[in-house]
């Protein structure tokens, strides 16, 4: 994504919309921030060299407009002392975040975007819905718990038969939503820690895919030279995103597991751990395909300087969790 002045402007208004929503003291102000965020992200989706960007932008606009409509109506009803509308309001926020059972739009929309826009959708665009969802966390604990368990199952099973990497990361994001909602049920600081680590891990994976122009399993064989250090770093980044110890991505999952054990919520813990095995399976399928198999076709060349920077950055973010697990745990306490 080329950072032209117009794109920088839209990115600034996107961040401004998030700031307005999470700092607003009324649902109307939060709705205004959501609409500003939506109208800023639509132009960022359009790319001249991507024929599917218009379809992705239309899908995203229709779904987000539906969520904003339900949210605004529910907020008005809540202001009229009709507390029964807190459930539709929470459902609208789950729809905007792409959580199950309202996940149907997330992977297809992600598939039509380029990697930088997909990264924004998987990370930055989840800040506002999750922050607003925390306002009604005590009233809607059952709804959020069910949505978390459904997200874990959908994200784990949906990615098993995927060969398109953007759809695979989309289902992975749905699975991570389950962990984030579970963390949100216990404390906001735990959710912030998990989201921060997830964003960094997603950034390392997506940037590797973006600079190597990898969108499909076959591209892992054709676009990356055999014996390249990028393959090993991609292996580490994907396993870290899956939460495999001893990588950085395991630290927030370890904290959530401990909190679920202390709160005796063993049903959710069992579902989350079971779903993690499935996600690690399709992460391993990607990494083993890129490491073991090699195509005889001509490989695309990658700039050495760029590759070195990516390797150093990705290795650092994947291994830094080994150095500070006790510091992260102290932050949570």
From TrEMBL:
| The EC number(s) this enzyme carries | 7.1.1.2
What is the recorded membrane topology of this protein?
Multi-pass membrane protein
Q: Does the keyword Electron transport apply?
A: yes
Any one Pfam family here would be: Proton_antipo_M
InterPro entries attached to this UniProt entry: Complex_I_Subunit_2 (IPR050175), NADH_UbQ_OxRdtase_chain2 (IPR003917), ND/Mrp_TM (IPR001750)
Q: Which reaction does it catalyse?
A: a ubiquinone + NADH + 5 H(+)(in) = a ubiquinol + NAD(+) + 4 H(+)(out)
Sorted alphabetically, which keywords does the UniProt record give?
Answer: Electron transport, Membrane, Mitochondrion, Mitochondrion inner membrane, NAD, Respiratory chain, Translocase, Transmembrane, Transmembrane helix, Transport, Ubiquinone
User: Does Aminoacyl-tRNA synthetase show up as a keyword for this record?
Assistant: no
An example molecular function term from Gene Ontology annotations: NADH dehydrogenase (ubiquinone) activity
Membrane-spanning residues: 7-22, 58-79, 85-106, 143-161, 191-211, 232-256, 262-284, 310-332
Q: Name one GO cellular component term.
A: mitochondrial inner membrane
Signal peptide per UniProt: none
Q: Choose any GO biological process term that the UniProt entry carries and state it.
A: mitochondrial electron transport, NADH to ubiquinone
Localized where?
Answer: Mitochondrion inner membrane
Q: What is its main location?
A: mitochondrion
Which intervals hold domain NADH:quinone oxidoreductase/Mrp antiporter transmembrane?
A: 24-79, 89-279
Q: Which family does it belong to?
A: Belongs to the complex I subunit 2 family.
Briefly, what is this protein's role? Core subunit of the mitochondrial membrane respiratory chain NADH dehydrogenase (Complex I) which catalyzes electron transfer from NADH through the respiratory chain, using ubiquinone as an electron acceptor. Essential for the catalytic activity and assembly of complex I.
Q: What is this protein called?
A: NADH-ubiquinone oxidoreductase chain 2
Organism the protein comes from? Euphausia superba (Antarctic krill)
| Gene name of the record | nad2
């Amino acid at each position: 994504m080329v950072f032209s002045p117009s794109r920088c402007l839209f990115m600034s208004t996107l961040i401004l919309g998030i700031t307005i929503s999470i700092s607003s003291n009324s649902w109307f102000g939060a709705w205004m921030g959501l609409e500003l965020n939506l109208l800023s992200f639509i132009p960022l989706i359009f790319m001249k060299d991507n024929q599917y960007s218009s379809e992705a932008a239309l899908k995203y606009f229709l779904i987000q407009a539906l969520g904003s409509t339900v949210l605004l109506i529910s907020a008005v009803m809540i202001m009229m002392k009709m507390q029964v509308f807190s459930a539709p309001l929470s459902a609208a926020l789950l729809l905007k975040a792409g959580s199950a059972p309202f996940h149907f739009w997330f992977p297809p929309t992600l598939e039509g975007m380029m990697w930088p826009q997909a990264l924004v959708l998987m990370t930055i665009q989840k800040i506002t819905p999750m922050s607003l969802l925390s306002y009604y966390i005590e009233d809607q604990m059952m709804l959020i718990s069910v949505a978390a368990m459904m997200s874990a199952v959908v994200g784990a099973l949906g990615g098993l038969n995927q060969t398109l990497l953007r759809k695979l990361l989309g289902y992975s994001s749905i699975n991570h939503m389950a962990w984030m909602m579970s963390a949100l049920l216990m404390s906001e600081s735990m959710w912030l820690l998990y989201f921060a680590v997830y964003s960094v891990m997603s950034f390392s994976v997506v940037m590797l895919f973006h600079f190597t122009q990898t969108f499909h399993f076959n591209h892992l064989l054709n676009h990356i030279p055999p014996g390249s250090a990028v393959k090993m770093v991609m292996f580490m980044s994907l396993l870290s995103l899956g939460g495999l110890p001893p990588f950085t991505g395991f630290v927030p999952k370890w904290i959530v597991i401990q909190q679920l054990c202390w709160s005796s919520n063993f049903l959710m813990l069992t579902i989350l751990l079971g779903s993690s095995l499935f996600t690690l399976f399709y992460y391993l399928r990607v990494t083993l395909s890129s490491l073991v198999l090699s195509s005889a076709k001509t490989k695309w060349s990658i700039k050495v300087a760029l590759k070195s920077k990516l390797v150093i950055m990705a290795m650092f973010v994947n291994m830094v969790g080994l150095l500070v697990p006790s510091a992260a745990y102290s932050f949570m306490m």
